[in-house]
Specification:
Layout (H helix, E strand, L loop, with lengths): L2 E2 L4 H10 L16 H7 L32 E6 L5 H10 L3 E5 L3 E6 L1 H10 L5 E10 L3 H9 L4 H4 L6 E7 L7 H20 L12 E8 L4 H6 L5 E7 L21 H11 L7 E3 L6 H10 L6 E3 L5 E3 L12 H13 L14 E5 L2 H13 L6 E5 L13 E4 L13 H15 L4 E6 L2 H5 L7 E7 L2 E9 L2
Parallel strand pairs: 6-7, 9-12, 9-14, 12-13, 14-15
Antiparallel strand pairs: 1-6, 2-4, 2-5, 3-4, 5-8, 7-8, 10-11, 15-17, 16-17
Helix pairs in contact: 4-11, 5-7, 9-10
Bound molecules: S-adenosylmethionine.
S-adenosylmethionine binds next to helix 10 and strand 12.
């Protein structure tokens, strides 16, 4: 369970007074749970790397200090959609990350500042990157409070005019409520500030300068935990993106039940499509699969958005407000990412046709708007029509789709008939093509009357789904 700490305005002031004698149990503040964020971190991320030095030296001075020098390298957790851990690990490794290890809903890695910037600008699959400040034994709330105060050089990371927020996930025997743990972190920090400066930061949930994340794990294996001799651990990290990285900024219009952009990118990566053969989505909705695919093939970095003047610029990231932000290094990574943008494939060959079809004219118009705002209109053609009437290009390629499966869309419609008709159409007209279909309902996919050659479990908005591969004969 992940908790967001809420304390602002007069309410935070009231709590501040209540919190005067920390460490100690506090009344719990109101908890606002963002379903999306909870989903990303709701189940414990197994952060079981060996202890390592956090960024910056730990120093406790009463004065404001110069920006902390960035450490040579540091531990990072990439939070990724469930089911995409392996493919995300491959992506992060290809971007230069070291010691890459897939975990559950996460990938652990090591990188330096340049690599951290590169990952934010260019990785397509993660929701967020958490840069480890410190990792410490955390048997109880006192240890948490002290550990947080010692976790970093707060004199440089958290001046009183720096706003922050705290999220917490996981838990241990003594600290099982993530909301309470988040409060302890907040209290430890504002108490430290008051002692050193006589004033404290404000908590800002929407646009904080510093977004802190605490992860608690019970420690030890199941047997040690059963004996009660485990050593609970805490990891305190900074979220480099701020907002979730799946929001690329091109999708003002979202159709019905759209896929998240990073999930779509992961599904395309699993399909192995490289832009050299046609890619078609006959039920394209708001076009997410096609947009992510074309962006990938043309080297468009997901951390950039297209401006109205036709130029791409990096989106704002939380890490740009950190005291050890290195603008020169950032510019180098921005320039390197921009250099990858092409109008052709890396080989110089043109991108093969990328085609979408959508029955609903209003959704099709949204898809068109999204394609344009992603700057991909010259490469993606969209048509209105029924997928049953889909006519594929002559050269066989890859079909991808995410048809309605009854949970949120298509209730009342004869979905079994739709799947049976799709199966017939595919066998009649798409011999030699490969189909990848996202299924949330095995009964419906049974109606295709086709045999999947691969089944990859993934989660789409909390629904247990399968990314199914079919070779069409
Ligand atoms: C789950 S949504 C696809 C979402 C899409 N992957 C996205 O990210 O936006 C399914 C889409 O199929 C469309 N659809 C349903 N039946 C269709 C049909 N027979 N032919 C074409 N499109 C259809 C719906 O209008 C809806 O937009």
């Amino acid at each position: 369970m992940r908790t967001r700490l809420i304390a602002s305005g007069s309410e935070s002031e009231r709590r501040r007074l209540l919190a005067a004698s920390n460490p100690g149990p506090l009344p719990v503040l109101s908890a606002q749970s963002l379903a999306e964020q909870k989903q990303q971190l709701s189940e414990a991320i197994a952060i079981n790397e060996p202890a390592s030095t956090g960024p910056g030296s730990k120093r406790h001075s009463g004065e404001m200090s110069l920006p902390a020098p960035a450490p040579a390298s540091f531990e990072v957790i990439a939070v990724v959609p469930p089911g995409l851990e392996e493919v995300a690990a491959a992506e992060l490794q290809a971007l230069g990350a070291e010691a890459v290890r897939p975990l559950r809903r996460a990938v652990s890695l090591r990188t330096d500042l340049a690599g951290f910037y590169r990952l934010h600008l260019r990785a397509r699959l993660p929701f967020r990157f958490l840069r480890q400040l410190d990792r410490f034994p955390c048997p109880d709330r006192v240890a948490l409070y002290r550990g947080v105060q010692n976790a970093a050089d707060w004199a440089s990371w958290l001046a009183p005019d720096t706003s922050f927020r705290v999220d917490a996930s996981g838990g241990s025997r003594e600290l099982s409520h993530s909301h309470y743990s988040a409060l302890q972190v907040k209290n430890a920090l504002v108490d430290w500030q008051r002692q050193h400066w006589g004033e404290r930061s404000s908590v800002d949930l929407d646009d904080p300068d510093l977004s802190l994340h605490l992860h608690l794990s019970p420690g030890g294996g199941p047997r040690r935990q059963a004996r009660g001799d485990h050593e609970a651990m805490a990891v305190l990290s900074l979220d480099g993106g701020g907002a979730s990285l799946h929001r690329r900024g091109y999708r003002a219009a979202m159709g019905l039940a759209p896929l998240k952009e990073n999930l779509a990118a992961g599904l395309i990566a699993l399909s192995g499509w490289d832009g050299s053969v046609p890619l078609c989505d006959p039920l394209c909705g708001s076009g997410t699969l096609l947009i992510e695919a074309a962006a990938m093939a043309l080297g468009r970095a997901p951390g950039f958005w297209q401006e109205a003047d036709g130029h791409s610029r990096p989106r704002p990231f939380a890490l740009q407000r950190w005291p050890d932000f290195d603008p020169l290094l950032w510019q180098q990574e921005v320039a390197a990412a921009r250099e990858l943008e092409r109008h052709t494939l890396a080989s110089g060959l043109p991108l093969a046709p990328v085609i979408g079809m959508e029955r609903d004219p209003a959704v099709l118009a949204q898809a068109q708007a999204n394609v344009s705002s992603a700057g991909l209109a010259p490469w993606i053609s969209l048509h209105q029509g029924d997928a049953r009437d889909f006519e594929p290009p002559e050269q066989p390629g890859i079909l991808v789709c995410n048809p309605p499966y009854g949970e949120r869309l298509g209730e009342g419609e004869d979905l079994e008939q739709l799947y049976a008709d799709l199966g017939r159409m595919l066998k009649q007209r798409c011999g030699g093509w490969t189909l990848w279909l996202l299924s949330g309902n095995p009964e419906l996919t049974g109606a295709l009357k086709m045999k999947a050659s691969r089944k990859v479990p993934v989660s789409n908005g909390g629904l247990d789904c399968r990314w199914l591969k079919y070779e069409i004969h």
